[in-house]
Amino acid sequence: MTDVFQTFLDPTQQVMAIEQRLRRGDLAGTLVEVRKLLSAGPDLRERWGNVAWIAEQIGDIEAALQAARRYFMADPLNPAVGLKVAELICETGRVEMALDVAQSIADQRPGDPAPQFHLGFYCARLGDFAQAMAHFRTGLAVKSDLTFVWQQISQIKTFTDPADPDLTAMTNLAVRLASAPSNIRAPLLYALGKAYEDLGDIPRAFSNYAEGARLMSAERPWDARSFEANVDEIVRDFDRRLMNSQPPSNIASDRPMFLIGAPRSGAALMERVLTACEGVGGGGAINFFRLSTLPLGEHRPSRLDTYASAASKAGSPDFWTGFASNYLGFLDERFGFEGRIVDRSLNHVQLPGSIRIAFPKSAMAWVRRDPYDLAWSCFRTPFARGQDWNWTQQNIAVYLHQLDRLHAHWTALLGDDLPTFDYEAMVRTPEAQIHRLAGHMGVVAGPEALAFHDNPRPVDSASLRELRKPVSQDRVGAWRPFETQMEPFIKAYEGFKASR
Fold first, then answer.
1. For residues 123 and 131, is the Cβ–Cβ distance under 8 A?
2. Kind and range of the H or E run holding 280
3. How far apart are CA 168 and CA 162, in angstroms?
4. Which of 16, 70, 243, 390 is the most exposed place for a label (fewest CB within 10 A)?
5. pLDDT in tens, 202-254
6. Cβ(389)–Cβ(224) under 8 Å?
7. Could you say which DSSP state residue 326 is in?
8. Please, are residues 350 and 238 in contact by the beta-carbon 8 Å criterion?
């Protein structure tokens, strides 16, 4: 459907047309049309909910938030819409604001457990664990089978007693919910796994984690072959010739700083260090680079060459400057106009070459962690979205093997532009590594950076408690008690290493 024809549609039909774009896989066109609709501001009422959902699917969280707010204005007594607004506000990093929205809904609905869960979730990210626990328990007092609440409780609590009433309650609930849908059972299984791991009951801990992962694997399968094909093409064809053949970006800004690596690799720790440095205005897994470069899809070299040729023929050869400008515009929209920003998005492992083309002045670093510790940490973590390789040990081995190939490729290609920072070195010699990291990124590590655990910023990582404590080596070697249970990963990963 052409844009000319679309201008004659009424607003409801425009939303339907945008949904059709999304279903066709035209993500870039979907982004443009969503933003145009928000700018025009028609009276869509509940249809703004559809727009919010569309924007969320393509990763435009700011647009999703704007649309959800408009839906809420049309239906201000709908608590589900209000809590969705709070959720999206939290996802943009404005956790205190999300807390205020959820509190207003909780005040209006004192017997509703849903706003209590939201309040607990936001308090935990702000480091107020006692208040978070109070909200979670208030919600459970109304409805005791909220498995996602039990998962949050387990995440912020350390279990020390096998007779803990919470453990008893979760165990009994697991029996009651034995036939419940996977999305109901899985959070409880991960909660039980964490509790038994705290208690040192390795067989029970692993059994619960593994069953939760099995359920999630059926719900959210991973296409390993597609990922491997992407990596094969990058390693083979994304070389210096390709980079030099791309039209150079005219962006001289060094505002974004990129931390690249797998989830649970230590990037959240290093982001916390950097955001405690003077002149750094914010950070997080912000995902703006993918959003800014949607026309490039998976950034395969063949796609880059094809797009560059088409852009040149269309009279738009300076597209990398345009992509980088869009990225900076998204930064301004979320963080304002001041301060350097740390971007530790989890989907950048295939993108360092593209990032360097778009931002020739920005600092990048690759974050690594012992692969066995990384594998175990990922397996025991139920990621909300985007990391569906972590449900089976074999897929984790595939992913980490491909990650090793990408690390070797990008560091060889980019050299000193992409130094490696090891999690183990950071926790063993923190002061030296903090100064090294800050120096590479072009900021000064003052006393606040060295005391990063006192950084008041919200935590958007599964390491809710760890990142608010002084640096520790406690998680180094955390996989070892599970060595027997991790044999499928070890066998597969070592087999990949031997074949290189």
1. yes
2. strand 280-284
3. 9
4. 16
5. 999 999 999 999 999 999 999 999 999 999 999 999 999 999 999 989 999 99
6. yes
7. H
8. no
